[in-house]
Amino acid sequence: MYDTKMTTSFPIIDMSKAYTERKRLAKKVVHGLENEGFLFIDNVANLDYDKLLSACKWFFDKPIEFKRTVMRKFWNPENSNIYRGYFPVTEEEPCRKEGFKFARDVIDDDVTVAEYNRFYEKSPWPKEDGEFPFKEFLQETYEILHNTALEILKLVAIGLDIEENIFEDMFSDKPCSTLRIMHYPPWEGKPPKNAIVEDGKVVVFSEHIDKNFMTLLTRFDYGGLEVKTIDGSWAEVDPRPGSLVMNIGDIFSRMMDGRLKARIHRVIDIGTDRYAVPFFFTPRYDADIGVHFMSKATGKGPEHRVEQYGPWVLDVIKNREK
């Protein structure tokens, strides 16, 4: 275990009041994203946290031979899936995690999607043993989180005093959003030097800013999530079981020309197994994520620069890999 010098909490958004106190809640959402960049999202209808944790343990407790059936091609050349599916812990890396990632499938005869488009690869699913409805439950959870994210975007728009459904078209047809179940095993023995950070803390996921539009994170009652504060120090996010942690990524912040904050965060080793489920809410491939979106929404301010999400993020990935 480790000591954290300071902790932080975020504005709490009660989704059960999204209609009865809509304007007040909308202003609270925008204020939180303009300052903290993170929110707690409470009372999401039909989201079963206990069952979601069971889904994580059902999969990650299986032997590696089972996981290899849905492992990405990079680690199992016998498989064809490149971007979806299972990825294992990579030794000697500062990110000690394994995960299973999936998305909505696009229909086979969709002529608008190029065969080589990495964002619409079909998701592989493991063979089930009757103990747990893994695929069905996770697909249902995906839709719950998708609809929750859309509702939060409506609140953002109301809080910005722009048309309530202005963001919806970006996600209504073939969004690139993904859902991941994650397992962070503790370090065994001495961790590599690149996993040891200031104050002797050890990371299982190094510091980063999300590259998607919005993240809805289920972290159950596990600690370890830290956010970099305005003064450059690190603060642990208060545990809040039965709640989602929401933050925005580079894309949304960029569209708002930095008005809404995308914050650096990391995950610290807590000395025991940790599970988390992030939903990465992401626009469709050809959605307009151009800077100065508020100019487009209001007709005032700097000129809105139209740019598609897919080519933009591929360029970001290419530059990051150089």
Q: Could you give the topology of this structure?
A:
Blueprint: E1 7-8, E2 12-14, H1 22-35, E3 38-42, H2 49-60, H3 64-67, E4 85-87, E5 98-103, H4 134-159, E6 178-184, E7 203-208, E8 214-218, E9 225-228, E10 234-237, E11 243-248, H5 250-255, E12 265-268, E13 274-281, H6 293-298, H7 309-321
Parallel strand pairs: 1-10, 2-3
Antiparallel strand pairs: 3-11, 4-5, 5-6, 6-13, 7-12, 8-11, 8-13, 9-10, 9-12
Helix pairs in contact: 1-4, 2-4
Would you kindly provide a written description of the structure presented here, covering whatever features stand out?
It comes from Dreissena polymorpha (Zebra mussel). It holds the Pfam family DIOX_N. It is a single chain. This protein has a single domain, classed as Jelly Rolls (Sandwich), CATH 2.60.120.330. It is 25% helix and 20% strand. The chain contains seven helices and 13 strands. The strands form two sheets. The protein has an eight-stranded mixed beta sheet with strand order 2-3-11-8-13-6-5-4. β2, α1 and β3 form a beta-alpha-beta unit. The chain starts with 6 loop residues before the first strand and ends with a helix.
Summarize the structure.
Helix 2 (49-60) packs across helix 4.
Provide tags for this entry.
single chain, 322 residues, alpha+beta, Jelly Rolls, five-stranded mixed sheet, 25% helix, disordered N terminus
The proportion of residues forming helix, as a percent range, comes to 25-40%
Number of DSSP strand runs:
13
Rg estimate, integer Å: 20 Å
Counted by DSSP, the helix tally is: 7
Structural domain count:
1
CATH classification, class level: Mainly Beta
Low-confidence stretches: 1-5
Helix-strand string: EEHEHHEEHEEEEEEHEEHH
| Structure class | alpha+beta
**What CATH architecture label applies?**
Sandwich
Order of the strands making up the biggest sheet: 2-3-11-8-13-6-5-4
How would a textbook summarize the main sheet? 8 strands, mixed
- CATH topology, anyone? Jelly Rolls
Q: Assign the CATH superfamily.
A: B-lactam Antibiotic, Isopenicillin N Synthase, Chain
Beta-strand content: 15-25%
Q: Give the termini separation.
A: 36 Å
Give the overall shape, derived from the CA principal axes: globular
